[in-house]
Write a structure and sequence with these properties.
Bound molecules: flavin-adenine dinucleotide
Mean pLDDT: 92
Strand content: 25-35%
Low-confidence stretches: 1-11, 352-359
Number of helices: 7
Helix content: 10-25%
Length: 360
């Protein structure tokens, strides 16, 4: 991705627009704003762009994108990024927007879980079904160990070298890390509730080879309790499907139970909600707070359909609403990309030069 990754903790950057959510709606919003000469910073709690398409069904084909009879979900995201490229949006990934507050000067304060701070002229909430959170290990006392001994993603693989490691789950992440860390961890136990895995067959086969070679153990079952020694995690009790109750060594636990969306902070920003979605008008897709817009799955209005193409339409109209909000004196008129020199200049497909009067 050519776009810059910015936002050192504590920096207070000024942005014309901040887009919250990098799903298909948020990505297309960059493009629609860019055509009008408005720059955007885009924030997502996930480490990569694409929202539900990338997180939930990257390999599935989509059949209802106009003019693309069949398009893979990840392919759609890649195409949206490519289309938005001329507008050099700044991406702040792997950080949840936790604060959104109107300021006295009509702008908005936006802050993230990593400490990125932005002042925005307008905000577009394209938060879909909410920010994706890892499904937690449902064991008594687990909260005491989360972040130090119980993890839902690998920040540094080296943290598990030489340790007794328990991995829970049966998807790609669980199997990939099992194979990668076997031989590096002091001991490794994989626990999954059934014998079938939702992971690449080659990785599953490799895991079974490692079990057969005595390099790790696999238990079909589920963890029921954590064991501690002097306050430190040392093991887990595992209920095997064959009726045995086992105690396995576990100084560190990696649990990969997938992600689930949580509306989270969006519900706390004082915006009018209807059934966990933000109420908007259908002219500008503005929320109950002027200057804050909402598009895609997070928005609701009479007749709303949660489809990708609805998000695209909403992004186009929201861009005009944002332009009016930021530059109320500017006369608005519709231009076609086929014939507009200024839009072609912005797209980088024409040698025509834009004059200062053309900006915005
Ligand atoms: C299995 C499946 C198949 C589907 N097939 C189709 C199909 O064929 N055709 C179709 O039109 N639609 C389909 N959909 C629906 C489609 O994926 C959604 O309508 C679309 O993804 C909505 O896009 P969005 O940009 O509004 O939100 P999302 O894709 O949900 O993206 C929202 C993003 O916002 C981020 N976010 C949320 N809150 C915060 C926060 N506070 N801070 C930072 N980031 C935040 C999330 O992490 C997420 O990345 C399908 C959905 C599923 C689950």
């Amino acid at each position: 991705m050519s776009e810059s990754i910015a936002g050192s903790p504590g920096s207070g950057t000024t942005a014309e627009t901040v887009i919250i959510g990098a799903g298909p709606a948020g990505l297309f919003q960059i493009f629609e704003l860019g055509l009008l000469g408005i720059n955007a910073h885009l924030i997502d709690s996930l480490a990569q762009v694409g929202g539900q398409c990338t997180e939930l069904y990257p390999d599935k084909p989509i059949y209802d994108i106009p003019a693309l009879p069949i398009c893979g979900a990840q392919e759609l995201v890649d195409r949206l990024l490519e289309q938005a490229k001329p507008f050099h949006a700044t991406f702040h990934l792997g950080q949840e927007v936790t604060e959104l507050q109107p300021l006295a000067n009509g702008k908005f304060h936006v802050a993230t879980s990593l400490g990125t701070r932005l002042t925005a002229g307008a905000v577009v909430i394209a938060a879909g079904v909410g920010s994706f959170q890892p499904r937690r290990l449902a064991l008594p006392g687990v909260e005491d160990f989360e972040g130090n001994s119980v993890h839902y993603r690998v920040k540094s693989a080296g943290d598990f070298h030489g340790r007794d490691l328990l991995i829970c789950g049966g998807g790609d992440s669980a199997l990939d890390w099992t194979v990668a860390l076997c031989g590096k961890a002091r001991s490794l136990t994989l626990v999954h509730r059934r014998a079938e895995f939702r992971a690449a067959p080659a990785t599953v086969a490799r895991m079974r080879e490692l079990v057969a070679a005595g390099k790790m153990q696999f238990v079909e079952g589920h963890a029921t309790a954590l064991k501690t020694d002097g306050g430190a995690l040392c093991g887990a009790v595992v209920q095997a499907n064959d009726g045995r109750t086992l105690e396995v060594a576990a100084e560190q636990v990696l649990a990969f139970y997938g992600l689930h969306p949580k509306l989270g902070p969006v519900a706390e920003w004082g915006l009018e909600l209807e059934r966990k979605a933000l109420k908007v008008d259908t002219e500008k897709f503005q929320t109950s707070v002027p200057g804050i817009f909402a598009i895609g799955d997070i928005s609701t209005y009479p007749g709303k359909k949660k489809l990708i193409l609805s998000g695209f339409h909403e992004a186009a109209l929201a861009a005009f609403g944002i332009q009016h909000h930021l530059f109320p004196e500017k006369r608005q008129f519709l231009q076609y990309t086929t014939t507009s020199p200024i839009m072609q200049k912005r797209l980088g497909v024409s040698g025509e030069s834009a004059t200062a009067a053309d900006s915005h």
